[in-house]
Amino acid sequence: MVSIASTKGHQNVSMLGIGAYRPNRVVTNDEVCEVLDSSDEWIFERSGIRNRRFVSGDETPRSMAVAAADRAINSSGIDRAEIGAVILATSTWKTLTPHGAPTVAYDLGINGVAAFDVCAGCAGFGYALSVAADQVRAGSAKYVLVIGLETMSLGLDPTDRGTAFIFGDGAGAVIVGPSEENGISPTVWGSDGENASAIAQQYDLVEYMDRANALQGTDPEVEKVGRLAIRMEGPRVFRWAAITLPKALSNVLEQSGVSTDDIDVFIPHQANSRINDLMKKNLGLAENVPVANDIENTGNTSAASIPLAIEEMLVSGKAKGGQIALLLGFGAGLSYAGQVVKLPPAPVEPSF
Ligand code: UT7
């Protein structure tokens, strides 16, 4: 009988280093409201957002992903030649073909490595972190580079009241690898395709091409359908979040074998500071447990929001390397993914 070889990795894995990149251009609520029928007060009160950042000049999805990843590698202190896989969590790479991770790996000087994208909306980082931890545990890679990257500004309709004020651009990355003690819990994750239309592109690719073809010759109209813009039924997502996420959070704690008293910091996806404050309260986390609030000046950066928020907390001193953090990503799909993790050390080269 033929015996097929298997692999065996390290059961204990952790995030060994983190890096982030924030675009140079800061966009205030007032600037958004030059086009959008809204106000600075409404946006801040409903979402907790004051500013977001948009790419400009030479900045691209590729350059942001590479900058964040390079910082994560340098912070981890590992030899980049030992990275066995690159996972890029994104929904806003400019092309579906080719996907982004191989070119990012090439730019990082590790061409040839296994490289693929994970597309799970705002839960993307949690999904990618889970796959990376499993890869190291299974022995299919020694170190895995996980990048959360979004360029939400490229697919935004600046006049849409449901999305124009929420989203921002940025990238955050971590190195996942073996560690003495375990630093990444089992993942609690799931999806709800029945409600997937609550966050969706306005047209799918076929509809978009049909409309563009039908409107050929009328340039302004073609321009109008030129965006594969995202639409979001905010209140519907809010209601789904209120039912689904508390259960997910208690499952994460249960599967991690920790209690709310063990949690030093809470770092949920930065979708809305009201949702995050509610989750903290419902979970019964102590008053003095800090909750990430990177949304205030970074906006909602979808798959990039959790690594960006971790980086912000480490750089500003609100959290420290080695502390126990509760993570939860949620959004399009409608998908979610949560873990309890040990935070990596503060980055050597902060993004701000
Ligand atoms: O990252 C992916 C996951 N996404 C989320 O988790 C998002 C979850 N949802 C949300 O964060 C919130 O639903 C929003 C921040 C998007 C919106 O806040 P809301 O409190 O749910 O507002 P709403 O849509 O229920 O609208 C409330 C009022 C309405 O007016 P009336 O009917 O009360 O008179 C809207 O017409 O605010 C009005 N409105 C606005 N006013 C100014 C809706 N959008 C705007 C706007 N500016 N942009």
From TrEMBL:
<keyword id="KW-0444">Lipid biosynthesis</keyword>
<dbReference type="Pfam" id="PF08541">
    <property type="entry name" value="ACP_syn_III_C"/>
</dbReference>
<keyword id="KW-0012">Acyltransferase</keyword>
<comment type="similarity">
    <text>Belongs to the thiolase-like superfamily. FabH family.</text>
</comment>
<dbReference type="InterPro" id="IPR016039">
    <property type="entry name" value="Thiolase-like"/>
</dbReference>
<keyword id="KW-0963">Cytoplasm</keyword>
<protein>
    <submittedName>
        <fullName>Beta-ketoacyl ACP synthase</fullName>
        <ecNumber>2.3.1.-</ecNumber>
    </submittedName>
</protein>
<feature type="domain" description="Beta-ketoacyl-[acyl-carrier-protein] synthase III N-terminal">
    <location>
        <begin position="116"/>
        <end position="193"/>
    </location>
</feature>
<feature type="domain" description="Beta-ketoacyl-[acyl-carrier-protein] synthase III C-terminal">
    <location>
        <begin position="253"/>
        <end position="342"/>
    </location>
</feature>
<dbReference type="GO" id="GO:0004315">
    <property type="term" value="F:3-oxoacyl-[acyl-carrier-protein] synthase activity"/>
</dbReference>
<comment type="pathway">
    <text>Lipid metabolism.</text>
</comment>
<keyword id="KW-0276">Fatty acid metabolism</keyword>
<dbReference type="InterPro" id="IPR013747">
    <property type="entry name" value="ACP_syn_III_C"/>
</dbReference>
<dbReference type="Pfam" id="PF08545">
    <property type="entry name" value="ACP_syn_III"/>
</dbReference>
<keyword id="KW-0443">Lipid metabolism</keyword>
<keyword id="KW-0808">Transferase</keyword>
<dbReference type="GO" id="GO:0044550">
    <property type="term" value="P:secondary metabolite biosynthetic process"/>
</dbReference>
<dbReference type="InterPro" id="IPR013751">
    <property type="entry name" value="ACP_syn_III_N"/>
</dbReference>
<dbReference type="InterPro" id="IPR004655">
    <property type="entry name" value="FabH"/>
</dbReference>
<dbReference type="GO" id="GO:0006633">
    <property type="term" value="P:fatty acid biosynthetic process"/>
</dbReference>
<keyword id="KW-0275">Fatty acid biosynthesis</keyword>
